[in-house]
Amino acid sequence: MKYNPNEIEAKWQKYWAENQTFAAKNNSEKPKHYVLDMFPYPSGAGLHVGHPLGYIASDVYSRFKRHQGFNVLHPMGYDSFGLPAEQYAIQTGQRPEDTTRVNIDGGVDKEGKQIAGYRKQLDKIGFSFDWSREVRTSNPDYYKHTQWIFIQLFNSWYCRKQGKAFDISELVTVFEEEGNKLVEAVCDDNVAIFTADEWNSYSEDQKEKILLQYRLTYLAETEVNWCPGLGTVLANDEIVNGVSERGGFPVIRKKMTQWSMRISAYAERLLEGLNDIDWSDSIKESQRNWIGKSVGALVTFNVKNHNEVIEVFTTRPDTIFGVTFMTLAPEHDLVAKITTPEQKAEVEAYIEKTAKRSERERMADVKTISGVFTGAYAEHPFTKEPIPVWIGDYVLAGYGTGAVMAVPCGDERDYAFANFFKGQNGMQEIKNIFANVDISEAAYGSKDNVEIAGSDFLNGLNYKEATAKAIFKLEEIGQGKGKTNYRLRDAVFSRQRYWGEPFPVYYVNGLPKMIDTQHLPIILPEVEKYLPTEDGLPPLGNAAVWAWDTKQNKVVNTDLVDNVSVFPLELNTMPGWAGSSWYWMRYMDAHNENEFASREALAYWENVDLYIGGSEHATGHLLYSRFWNKFLKDKGFAPTEEPFKKLINQGMILGTSAFVYRVEYDIDLSWETDFPAGEGQTISLKKVLVSKGIFEKIGLDGIKQLMISKLEKEIFEPVKNILQNAEIKILTKAINISSITPIHADVSMVNSSDELNVEKFKAWREDYADAEFILDENGKYIVGREVEKMSKSKYNVVTPDDICDEYGADTLRLYEMFLGPLEQAKPWNTAGISGVFGFLKKLWRLYFDDNGLIVNNDEPTKDNLKSLHKTIKKVAEDIENFSFNTSVSQFMICVNELSSQNCHSRAILEPLAILVSPYAPHIAEELWSQLGHTTSISDVAFPIFEEKHLVETNKEYPVSFNGKMRFTIELPLDLTAAQIEEIVMKDERTQKQLDGRTPNKVIIVPGRIINLVG
């Protein structure tokens, strides 16, 4: 009976689907365990073998937990809104909902391309997902609840005093009774103070404008990353090297009215929560840096000749007397107000230039020094001396206050800036306020061993003393106060795109109103064009039916807007991270029509026990998810402060690219002849590709000689045709080779011996159909190999479908786990697959021969039990430690040992099938069934490790004569030295070695040494 993976796997995948084997229960006597994967974006490219790595790991763990008796929730869905689908729709003329559906479910797209579909690909690998809970963020029954959460955020404010969010109605009550003077809230800067009487006298519109300054989601004019090529705002993590990650379009800074989320309110809780979760240090550090907590002072500088002030946050108020100049971000509101007429042109030109650089690019560029003097001066709060005000792109409008008090003696960047512009208008000499410190070559940035000098009342103080006194004095004169600041800024929540969640918002007198939750979802309308309108509005500006009728409470035709009962709806859509910021909760109760999840389901599952996904989401998705979870906890919905207890970032599986090598060359021909064509006739040259082996062996000079001999005919025949019958007096030739250029070849055209199928390559690349291929001495073209990111553009993608078809899903699963530690990047090498496939066939032969099942009821031997229990111990420990690769090694060792022991005992092979089940579930199910069981192996208890089977009772001693080992002898470990000596001396091998002699000394250390001397 042969191992037939395709037949076995189809059988058990059908069984699991029909029997809902992996459906979790929302109430169970079993303890719960929630295992989650970062759900995929369903692109048309489908899965390659790198994508399932984390899914396989989580599946192994989920199956193991089921064997341990847990009620396991292991769901899957799709992050199906977003820019990629919309861009593809624009390019191909298809509706994004259609392409998204085909990418998930499979089918044929508009261009006739066959799409496998994510669902079919995932099923083929045999994951134990609870598909009954599948979610798609682009489905109205899902984003209905995303819209609901947005409304909750709009209707909430954050109380600093109590450190949590409350309903906005509670804030209104305070305003009605007390005004806002004593309110400790996270809100916009410079909120005007008003009394209760003033509040009660305001119009409804005035009240709404004030409340927008407090709401957790609010409309505000914000500096954003605007991408003209994509027609939308991008988050910082969507920009790479100053261009959009999607499409590589330039990104500029621009002010726009946007929806924003007050994530900054949760900065301290986001920091504190990192202490309570089991995440890697690197991810925690990324979040700490992104949140960027700083303790210092907020200092106010008056601007000379203007009724304006510059607010600066500094972590070094002790250096206040060392301020040499000030720098504002080019986008700072004050720049236009304080710039002098003489400096206006230069300042405006600099601002225009700066707008083309993203914040991330500006932050990363520490070498370039640039700036412009505004012509304005600020006033030092203590000395009243004038301080020149510059603008520079190393200062960011969104970080701190967008202004820096520059102390060059204590800061390297300020030092470089001051020296670069030294002697120019507005740049003063650097002041040194540190005693006994030389700053002639560099700034002194350390806080250690500081003694302040040249600083009036701070002289002689150290850093800590001077900081405290400077803050006290600033507060005393009303020009500063102690402050804790965060780098974390409020998150822009608008996108000028189509394929995203519609906002449940309409506008009355330009002010946002929320649609009542009972009328949700507000469904994305049909549009003909997915590009912005001709007058620059977002794509929803093209919608014919996109207005809100407040009498009928429904969406109606846009041309019915009368601003009396029918009002315009919001034209922006939510960003890609909206739906992914709460999806783990929806899995808990995926079919609840009335709530995003019931309180009972939330209370039972609480949060995710294990989350596996990519580290690239450290400061995007993971931060936003924690923010939304904390907010929902404040509102009494989420039962825990943190959404994900344990997080593991899987490493990347890299592709092994294949390269052919093109010879870059030209040919010089010259001759003397009476033929009127003269010299230097142009000859059409063939492309030449040289095998890697030849290239490495003979180098450029050798290739040159090869080409001369191989291409003689191609080089000179055209010349003879040109010259026809003319008399050739002199003919010279020269081949010039400049370089060898590597070119990607599709890995599907290369075999395991790195040999290229030349004819397939020519058919694939028509521009090389007539190319000359220089083969090696064996008549083969050998490609070069290089490990790179697996990508369609590098032609190094291997699909899991192909591996499953040829070797089976169990082989794929085992091989991916075997490649190396889960969290490390590792190269894919298809050649290694056959070894894992061979292991599974060897495992099969423990249970079957050609005639069928050979499992017997024989008592297992001591060695059988030892092999089994070593494996039980190792596999259980490895899965708990996520060391999956060493588990696979142990399986191989165990099967080899049992094979050599000729073990076919049911007492060994039944538990072995359970051990293998998390990794290779299909073969395990088949073995379990063939052993006579009628239910799935998935819930069978994991074998219990028994230490006694690993306790050694015998010891194999090396027996040495004068220090040289001559033979070994196995003896019980409980023998005394005298008993060991007696047995050894009687052994015939000892007698033969002694040859009648009596040893001078017999050295015996029980359990270790036997040595006969003399």
UniProtKB/TrEMBL annotation:
Residues covered by the Methionyl/Valyl/Leucyl/Isoleucyl-tRNA synthetase anticodon-binding domain: 865-976
EC number: 6.1.1.4
Intracellular or extracellular location(s): Cytoplasm
Swiss-Prot/TrEMBL keywords: Aminoacyl-tRNA synthetase, ATP-binding, Cytoplasm, Ligase, Nucleotide-binding, Protein biosynthesis
GO cellular component, one term: cytosol
All residue ranges annotated as the Leucyl-tRNA synthetase editing domain in the record: 288-471
A Pfam family that the UniProt record links to this protein: tRNA-synt_1_2
Catalysis performed (reactions): tRNA(Leu) + L-leucine + ATP = L-leucyl-tRNA(Leu) + AMP + diphosphate
GO-annotated molecular function: aminoacyl-tRNA deacylase activity; ATP binding; leucine-tRNA ligase activity
Top-level lineage group: Bacteria
InterPro entries documented for this protein: aa-tRNA-synth_I_CS, aa-tRNA-synth_Ia, Leu-tRNA-ligase, Leu_tRNA-synth_edit, M/V/L/I-tRNA-synth_anticd-bd, Rossmann-like_a/b/a_fold, tRNAsynth_Ia_anticodon-bd, Val/Leu/Ile-tRNA-synth_edit
GO aspect biological process, one term: leucyl-tRNA aminoacylation
Transmembrane segments: none
Motif ('KMSKS' region): 789-793
Family affiliation: Belongs to the class-I aminoacyl-tRNA synthetase family.
Protein name according to UniProt: Leucine--tRNA ligase
Annotated source species: Flavobacterium defluvii
Name of the coding gene: leuS
